[in-house]
């Protein structure tokens, strides 16, 4: 067996792993990156980028279907070429992966170890039985994988995860999506708009990542108006029948219904890839899910020379968070024992459905848990149904709730569903990271007519409830009609 002695070993070559490797290399040349799977990052290969390609195709169909509402009538029926749709998705996906691989290729060959690593002790790793690595510091950046009930494996190749969708050569006729979270909503709605018969099922009533009951109820109602969604379904039977899957479920009318599909898409969450690392051979403290606990500002675990980052940490499984965590973990592993707190930005997340869903800062659940029900915070709201620019574009669906602290007037967070929510969320996230008050946010410029005027309406509502501003004027004219 080959033996290597290094300062830092990074387990994983995805977004977090690459960030950790490069950050550690700024302090020492003695760094290796271990990867057993394909390079290319989850985002580029099977996550955010290919899913947005599918969504973009679906949006183009939707715009044509909406055109008659503007008095514009396309000639003839819409023809969706599923093979051409998937060909473009795979072609562009491969292009994005190629950009990542170019960066990987720039890493010296001697720094890249192929295989799966396991801990022997706090500072010793064995890679696939061929290499022993004695590392003074170790960064775990092993990512995550889809999680679903093991019994579903009986469906064989009729069971797919989001990774599989982007390898299809053609669009199927029917799909049952289990899990109305981020992945399930994005893929389910996109497939529906591309002509696939889709039903989306969930358990427990959760829709997306939302915690605000008012926003979640609005989202549930809005999606149900477009495609079948039951966020708390009772499935009586799900079995494979040749090349189909038969699903018997109690529908929203309380009747038993059968849905025969080409595929069952499991979008029921992801699991950190830490269960096969041999962590039992170390004293690293684990949480209830078996994931190493770590300081969110240093990414240091309970064992001082072991760090964790990205989806493996199970803190905030988003690409930009993985990149930040990777840099922090790699920097501290490289400069050890001079551990420093890294920049953690205000939380921002988005679901690229239509309307989009977004969350900024603290969620309503987090605020309620921290401040309780003592009346220490208030909620400002706006509906996009009557908002001027949204109605102009026939995109007037949505609701925005913003939360502010009594006394200080500080902006705490927001949950929303609405048009251009991804852009509204960025504005609000910048305000949150700068610890702005609601009054300061209202001092910022708002053009007319723009969707962002809806943000101002919600902030004004909140400011009045915090007793820091005047009562809301029902038909305010300082920003023109239709606001």
TrEMBL record:
InterPro entries found in the cross-reference section: FAD/NAD-bd_sf, FAD/NAD-binding_dom, FAD/NAD-linked_Rdtase_dimer_sf, Mn/Fe_SOD_N_sf, Pyr_nuc-diS_OxRdtase, Pyr_nucl-diS_OxRdtase_dimer
Entries under Pfam families matching the protein: Pyr_redox_2 (PF07992), Pyr_redox_dim (PF02852)
Ranges for domain Pyridine nucleotide-disulphide oxidoreductase dimerisation: 349-458
Residue intervals passing through the bilayer: none
Cofactor: FAD
Enzyme Commission number(s): 1.8.1.4
Record key words, sorted: FAD, Flavoprotein, Oxidoreductase
SUPFAM superfamilies xrefs: FAD/NAD(P)-binding domain, FAD/NAD-linked reductases, dimerisation (C-terminal) domain
A GO term, aspect molecular function: dihydrolipoyl dehydrogenase (NADH) activity
Family membership noted in the UniProt record: Belongs to the class-I pyridine nucleotide-disulfide oxidoreductase family.
UniProt xrefs under PANTHER family: MERCURIC REDUCTASE (PTHR43014), PYRIDINE NUCLEOTIDE-DISULFIDE OXIDOREDUCTASE RCLA-RELATED (PTHR43014:SF4)
Protein name, as recorded: Dihydrolipoyl dehydrogenase
Organism of derivation: Vibrio breoganii
